[in-house]
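Troubleshooting entry. The earlier prediction with heme C gave an output that would not parse, so I re-checked the input for stray whitespace and re-submitted. Clean input:
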Amino acid sequence: MRIIHFTACLIFSASVSFASEIDVDAIENPVTVDSASITKGAKLYQKHCVVCHGEKMDGNGPSAESFEVAPWGFIDGELKEISDGYLFQQIKNGGPWFEMPPFVLALKDEQIWNLVNYLKSLGK
Ligand code: HEC
């Protein structure tokens, strides 16, 4: 248990300092939005995100009810005003309420950008 707690603290402090030191909206998306990137993002979504964010991308996956702050839905224009850099940063370091897990160890940056491209392509 102690190790798990220690790791959680590390992730906690890493994401806090990351968020406060750089302007996430200014992070540029290096991956071109094309069908190849969107297809890769869709596959990654099915593998890593569906359990919480849902098959229908409505934030209502099988485990959605176990969270205090509900997982985001991605289909009702929620992402219209949200920058690519912000999304990238949230997926990489975890959500602000610490219920959305960080994917920094599970996914490469390029895979996270593919996810961003996929999510932003929805509801357009
Ligand atoms: C274990 C459940 C879980 C998984 C798996 C998960 N999420 Fe989340 N996600 C959440 C919850 C709960 C929230 C809302 C609370 C928060 O932001 O911490 C959230 C919030 C978000 C947000 C919004 C963050 C914000 O600013 O509030 C984005 C973007 C997101 N998730 C993307 C993803 C993507 C992409 C994946 C797959 C790589 C993923 N999530 C996998 C549970 C999950």
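This one parsed fine. The chain has one domain: 2-121.
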